[in-house]
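Recall the central idea of this unit: under ordinary conditions, the amino acid sequence of a chain determines the structure it adopts. In this exercise we apply that idea directly, starting from the sequence alone.
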Amino acid sequence: IRKLAENLGVAFRFNGEVFGRIGGDPGPMAEGLPPDESVRIEKEDPLHRDLWNRMLQDQAPRSRPRLFRCRAGRQNFHIGPYGDLNVCILMRKAVWELRSGSFRQGWEEAIPRLIATPAEEDECDRCDLLALCFPCPAKGDLETGDMTQKPEGLCRRSRAIARALREETEAVAV
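Accordingly, the structure predicted from this sequence is:
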């Protein structure tokens, strides 16, 4: 695929993340590459390495007042094939049905209610990799069926990225 992209003159970016099914069945995740292997491939891309290093150096607050820390529902949205308005393409439970109300109603009423969902303090708030992990409610929902639950796959991936960056740093120091 990388070679095809090069032949077409477009950028190629590998992402080894595999998500659970709608409703919280993590089954498809077993078919993905192990996190260490996926990260090894991604690490070849300077864009990934730079992004990961910036995220690790991020001195963002340790607490998460809101469940949604990303731009979902603030700067972007997703409309599914059946008219369901959502905060991002990974959130699969409809926030607003465009068949029964206007986009404006969904954008100004339903989405703000969802993204204002408070985050309860949990082990993620005490994790040194919080900035690198960037907990994602949509990924939690796809993995567990509950957007408030921690997605273990994301934890494994974050630990693999941290290991890869640490190994790279140690190799340079030798």
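The mean pLDDT is 85.
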